[in-house]
Amino acid sequence: MIHLRVAAASASLLFAATLSLHAQQKAPSASDGLDLRFANGIAAIVEDKIITVDDIRREIAPLIPTLQKESRNEQEFNQKLEALQDDIIQNLIDRVLIVKDFNKAKDGDESKKRQVPASIIDNQMAETQITQFDGDRSKFLAYLHSRGMTLKEYRKEVEEDIIYNYMRQQQRKSQSVVSPVKVETYYKENKDRFYQEDAVLLRVIQFTRPNGETEAMLRAKAEEVVAKFHGGEPFGELARQYSQDTRRSKGGD
Question: Whole-model pTM above 0.70?
Answer without folding.
Answer: no
